[in-house]
């Protein structure tokens, strides 16, 4: 690890890696804005149009954990570059698509590349920045990209679709991806993995990939068939059975694909659980809030992107400029708690938005509150989620962080959208269409706030403060300079 820790180019390397992550994150939301244009051009039906998004999300959500572990086994840089190659090639196929089948197939391949690329980045960052201060700052940069990329995608998708055509939301990935790959090879030092023999559990890989892909598909289909449908129950049971079989296998074999020792850390387990709940709650603002702006206030695609821009700027300012200082001064857990409170308050304020709402008074204030909360919460959560990972497990821990975010987001969106629709349908005929629609959104915001509240409880009860020393002492001096409470708290970076 020492050569990387003294690499003078590591900050430039960080920005290069985050450019690759931003490209992946953007692709999740940038397509949403272009869906009407894609539908008109390729003749998609309303039901088939969802597969432009789902074909990407299913392999993406299903392969993150496996890709992260393979990064530990055969080298994280190698997995990152392989993912970039797959993603860029698939982006070209998407851009050139002239049929529904070609676009959906290319999107599936793109999801595979996205999973390979994004699964290992957080692990690479932890390896490049072992010192607490630099690591907190680096995770702040990554946290901004991961949390704000979705809203940037709304703006970029609106600009590209309206100014040129939907094909360019995919063409734009080519120069970005190629430049990222070239610079990664030059700036990021290769580290050999621990060896494929240390975790080459093929049956386990099939079990967890099948469980996650099937589970992701099932969640995405809930909005079409309903939670009580036979399909939902059967596929959910199969997915759960595969996951249980995977965990049972990992506990019994000598070289597991996912060593369960990682979950002995209260911070790792608690941070991942809290993140899943937080992302699920946030989706009520980012997705249903966008629908409120479009369908009730009459914003166009570009207007929605611009409306979210202040929140993005706030997230960026905090994540890039202040989160590291806050984490070093107060610790990640103490920084996390007020951030969660601000997000919860922001969602509660969103539940008061009227049908004839005004952006400046009804939308902007809660959006800024949520932006402040995200800008402090996400870097803290990622710091805690990686705190129990050894260098040999950092790729797995990174993949786990991304997996809980994706699964939490998918479940959250399905639950919130379904409940919002049910509330809207129950009010149809008794109030105006906009009032019924807005009431459904309000219910989703309230549930989202409750999920964030549950994340707060987990942070208080489960997580422990990871002491972050103000200075970065030499390894031999670390014990002498640690604070008295350090012996009782969970180490920030155990055995790394």
Biggest β-sheet strands, sense, barrel: none
Structural class, by secondary structure, is mainly alpha
Helix content: over 70%
Evaluate the radius of gyration.
Answer: 22 Å
CATH topology tier name of the largest domain: Growth Hormone, Chain: A
Task: Calculate the mean pLDDT score and round it.
Answer: 81
Beta-strand percentage?
A: under 5%
Per CATH, the architecture of the largest domain is: Up-down Bundle
CATH superfamily of the largest domain: MFS general substrate transporter like domains
How far do the termini sit from each other? 9 Å
How large is the count of helical segments? 20
User: What's the total number of strands?
Assistant: 0
| Low-confidence regions | 1-5, 469-496
Order of helices and strands: HHHHHHHHHHHHHHHHHHHH
């Amino acid at each position: 690890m020492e050569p990387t820790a003294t690499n003078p180019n590591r900050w430039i390397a960080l920005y290069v890696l985050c450019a690759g992550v931003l490209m992946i994150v953007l692709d999740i939301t940038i397509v949403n804005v272009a869906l009407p244009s894609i539908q008109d051009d390729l003749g998609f039906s309303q039901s088939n149009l969802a597969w432009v998004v789902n074909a990407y999300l299913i392999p993406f959500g299903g392969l993150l954990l496996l890709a992260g572990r393979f990064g530990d086994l055969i080298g994280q840089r190698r997995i990152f570059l392989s993912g970039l190659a797959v993603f860029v090639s698939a982006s070209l196929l998407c851009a050139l698509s002239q049929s529904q089948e070609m676009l959906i197939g290319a999107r599936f391949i793109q999801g595979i590349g996205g999973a390979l690329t994004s699964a290992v980045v957080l692990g690479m960052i932890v390896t490049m920045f072992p010192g607490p201060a630099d690591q907190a700052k680096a995770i702040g940069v990554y946290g901004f990209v991961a949390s704000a990329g979705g809203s940037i995608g709304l703006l970029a998708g609106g600009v590209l679709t309206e100014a040129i055509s939907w094909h360019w939301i995919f063409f734009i990935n080519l120069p970005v991806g190629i430049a990222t790959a070239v610079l990664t090879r030059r700036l990021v030092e290769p580290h050999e993995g621990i060896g494929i023999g240390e975790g080459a559990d093929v049956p386990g890989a099939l079990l967890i990939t099948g469980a996650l892909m099937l589970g992701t598909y099932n969640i995405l289909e809930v909005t079409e068939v309903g939670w009580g449908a036979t399909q939902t129950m059967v596929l959910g049971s199969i997915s759960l059975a595969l996951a249980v079989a995977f965990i049972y296998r990992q506990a019994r074999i000598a070289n597991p694909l996912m060593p369960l020792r990682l979950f002995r850390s209260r911070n790792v387990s608690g941070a991942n659980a809290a993140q899943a709940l937080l992302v699920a709650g946030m989706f009520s603002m980012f997705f249903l809030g966008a629908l409120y702006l479009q369908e009730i206030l009459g914003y166009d695609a570009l207007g929605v992107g611009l409306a979210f821009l202040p929140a993005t700027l706030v997230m960026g300012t905090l994540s890039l400029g202040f989160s590291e200082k806050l984490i070093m001064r107060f610790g990640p857990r103490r920084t996390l708690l007020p951030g969660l409170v601000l997000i919860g308050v922001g969602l509660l304020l969103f539940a008061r938005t009227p049908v004839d709402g005004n952006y400046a008074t009804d939308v902007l204030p809660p959006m800024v509150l949520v932006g402040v909360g995200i800008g402090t919460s996400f870097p803290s959560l990622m710091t805690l989620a990686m705190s129990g990972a050894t260098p040999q497990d950092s790729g797995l821990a990174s993949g786990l962080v991304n997996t809980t975010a994706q699964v939490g987001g998918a479940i959250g969106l399905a639950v919130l959208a379904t409940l919002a629709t049910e509330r809207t349908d129950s009010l149809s005929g008794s109030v105006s269409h906009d009032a019924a629609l807005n009431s459904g959104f309000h219910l989703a915001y309230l549930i989202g706030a409750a999920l964030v509240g549950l994340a707060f409880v987990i942070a208080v009860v489960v997580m422990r403060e990871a002491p972050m020393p103000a200075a970065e002492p030499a390894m031999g001096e670390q014990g002498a300079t640690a604070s008295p409470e350090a012996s009782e708290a969970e180490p920030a970076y155990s055995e790394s």
